[in-house]
Automatic annotation (TrEMBL):
Superkingdom classification of source: Eukaryota
Protein name, entry field: Uncharacterized protein
Region of interest called Disordered, as start-end residue ranges on this chain: 85-113
Bias (Low complexity) ranges: 94-106
Length: 113
């Protein structure tokens, strides 16, 4: 959102987050000991939430993986490339985790304390 004030200056900070606000969720997830047992969750504004449908689209995930490998392959060792693959490689998909199906169920209501 952008508004122009009477002096002609553009004002953008009406909906934007400060750097501190923008970093809060990442920092909270990295240092909050209460989150140690919560894995495979997406956080927004320091709260778990469902990620977008696009983020759970396996076709998009494969394309992102291929493009990511393509962009960084010059910086990777041949052992890493052999392990994780590259464009056109049969092992180019991201390594599988124990959870193969994305969580698409709604999250439980937050505790009020």
């Amino acid at each position: 959102m952008c508004f122009t004030c009477s002096s002609g200056l553009l004002v953008f900070n009406l909906v934007a987050r400060t750097p501190k606000e923008g970093a809060a969720t990442s920092i909270n997830c990295a240092v909050n000991p209460q989150l140690n047992s919560r894995q495979c969750l997406y956080y927004d504004s320091c709260r778990p939430t469902n990620s977008s449908a696009d983020s759970r689209n396996e076709g998009y995930q494969e394309v992102l993986w291929e493009k990511s490998i393509e962009m960084v392959k010059h910086f990777l060792s041949s052992a890493t490339l052999a392990k994780y693959g590259g464009a056109g490689s049969p092992s180019s998909a991201p390594p599988q985790t124990e959870q193969t199906e994305p969580k698409t169920t709604p999250l439980p209501a937050e505790d009020s304390h």
